[in-house]
Structure formats: C-alpha cells, structure tokens
Amino acid sequence: xxxxxxxxxxxxxxxxxxxxxxxxxxxxxxxxxxxxxxxxxxxxxxxxxxxxxxxxxxxxxxxxxxxxxxxxxxxxxxxxxxxxxxxxxxxxxxxxxxxxxxxxxxxxxxxxxxxxxxxxxxxxxxxxxxxxxxxxxxxxxxxxxxxxxxxxxxxxxxxxxxxxxxxxxxxxxxxxxxxxxxxxxxxxxxxxxxxxxxxxxxxxxxxxxxxxxxxxxxxxxxxxxxxxxxxxxxxxxxxxxxxxxxxxxxxxxxxxxxxxxxxxxxxxxxxxxxxxxxxxxxxxxxxxxxxxxxxxxxxxxxxxxxxxxxxxxxxxxxxxxxxxxxxxxxxxxxxxxxxxxxxxxxxxxxxxxxxxxxxxxxxxxxxxxxxxxxxxxxxxxxxxxxxxxxxxxxxxxx
Length: 398
Ligand SMILES: [Zn+2]
Fold this sequence. Notes:
Strands 2-3-7-6-5-8 form a 6-stranded antiparallel β-barrel. Strands 16-17-18-19-21-20 form a 6-stranded mixed sheet, sandwiched between helices. Helices cover 36% and strands 30% of the residues. Strand 6 (55-62) and strand 7 form a beta hairpin. It has 8 helices and 21 strands. It has helices spanning 87-111, 136-151, 163-169, 227-248, 255-291, 313-324, 353-362, 385-397; strands spanning 3-4, 14-25, 28-33, 35-36, 50-52, 55-62, 68-72, 79-85, 115-120, 125-129, 156-161, 181-186, 190-193, 208-216, 219-226, 294-295, 302-308, 329-335, 340-345, 367-370, 374-378. By secondary structure, the chain is an alpha+beta fold. The chain starts with a strand and ends with a helix. Bound molecules: zinc ion. Residues 97, 101, 194, 196 line the site of zinc ion.
C-alpha cells in the first residue's frame, strides 16, 4: 500500500521513499514505492511528471485502491530513492483544480446550477452544468463571484470524515462510499469530497477566466482557465486583437465596428461585381453571336465554340445561359484554367447535350452531366479541350 504524501501536503515537491517493486512493462518500468508525492491520474486531475532517482517518470497511475504505479524509462533498484516533481506542471493542476471547485460552487450559489462533471485538460478545463439555459450575463456573474472569493484569499483546507460526517457538515455533492473520505473545504464558501491536490489559499489560483460555453446533450459545458493559463489566454487574446487593429488601422476598441463595416463593404462590392460580371456575360454573348457563330446542323442552328484561358466555371455557365437564351444557339464552351466544359442549347433545338458532353469527356478521362439542354463537366488535361470541342462540333453537325 502506497502512502500518499500529497493527501496531506500538496506543496511537497521532493521526497524520500523506498522502492518496493520494480517490474518491466514493455520498454518501460513500473515502480511502486512505500510512499509518494506523485499524483496518479484520478478524479479528473491529470498525473504528475518528474524524476525518480535517475529515471524519468513518464506516467503515474492507480493500480487499485492501494498502490500508485510510477511508469519510468529505466529500471530502479529496490531500496531508498529520492523523487522530484515537475513542479510547474503540478502547481498548474492545483490552480485549475481549486479554480474548478470555486467555479462550481459559485454557479450553485448564484444560479443553483450544479456541476455534473468536469475535465481538467492540457490547454483548457471544462465543467458541465445542469441548466436549462446559460446566458453570457450568467457566465460573467459566476466569473465575477469566483474571482471575488479568489481575491479574498480564503484558506483551502483538507478535512477527513465518513460520508455521513461530511454530509452533516454540508458538502456540495454527496458521495456514497465506505470508510474515511477526504474533502476540500474553502473557508466559508464550499466543501466537496475530493482526492485531488489543491492550493493552500484561494489567492494562489490567481484568476479564473471563463472562455466560452456550449450546449452538450442536455447540459451546458463551460470552458475555463485559471492562474498562469488565464494570463496566457488574456495575452493571446490581446495579441490577436492588436493584430486585428493593426490590419484595420484602428484602435482596439473599434475593431468590432470596423469589421462590421468591412463585411458590409465586402457584401456590397460582391453584389456590384456580380452585376458587372452579368453585364459582361451579356455583352460577350452578343459579341460571340455576332462574330463567331458557326453553321450548325440545320439553318435554324448556330454554334458558338470557344476555349477561354481563365474563365471560372460560374462565368462559363452564365455565358452559356446568355447564349442559349437566344433562339437557335448551341454553345460549346470550355476554360483552360480549371478544365471546365459547358455544352448548352436553346430549348427548341433537338440535340442531346447531356449525352454529347458525357461521351466527349469520357474519352479524355473527364466527367460531368446535366440535362438535355444544359450539361457541364471537367477534364484533367486542359490541353485536350480544343480537340474535345472540335469533335463535339462535328458530331452536332453530323
Ligand atoms: Zn476536486
């Protein structure tokens, strides 16, 4: 049975112990000590890392209720050993975990929203709240209340007792377990059964910052960061905002208004461009019909055949539409830039443009389709377009 030193002193960064067993597990070793300050992954809190003798601790896990297993990169002899924790990592976990207790208690106090589960992640942590709806003003209120308790620098204490004793003392969430349980008490604010590591005073959490919330099944998931993570997140946001302000040549406070204006301008220039493109297509259709129309199968049919350099598929479709809006027109259009092909004809003509396009493209390894009067597709090799259109013209005339 491993004595868990962190249960009583979460600020223990180094400790002496004895190696009780060391067993190989693949390329790693599994070390059990008589006592340890290393926290194993459990209760939502990630494991510690660090050094054990000359070995790196890669993982720490609970084998059963009784032993803590240290996964190391090399073997260790039985006997005395010195352990050193990766302290920045552990302290970060303590800040996040105490911050989580505070935040969960604040949501209960202010809105009666209980926390149904939580996750302490590598980048951000989350709590899931049982609430019908969660609004921004509620997030802000809970964040404000949590930070009030942090600024009051209240004591965080570890207490022990049976489930019955803890329930009588008043815990946020009751547990039904035998034996002596451990609880974390935040002076005059919260008491919660927990086996995790916590800071000694709320002031050490530094700050809690709520980042966002989203509905997950029937609950609301709130993302938060504490301590150094909160500073890093705020610095990241500020850098992003400063860059946006620089790009928009405005003050940071003006960014939302400037973005809204830029989006409006983009929308109206897009509409203006669409109108111009449409006019261009109309004009080009008339020019092509006047100067490049070739004889079709009958006297009633004219064929426009053209390979463009860089027209996009939208323009090709639009132009084809304008061409065949005139009576007696068959259009065989293509664009080298994307290998696009459009075959179309005026409604009263009798060819099957869909079949013609499919057969024409198939030979060149392309694909496409459409209706009897309007079909489109593409080929992988734009160099084949001239030949494809010429052969299609011959078949139209045949
Ligand atoms: Zn906890």
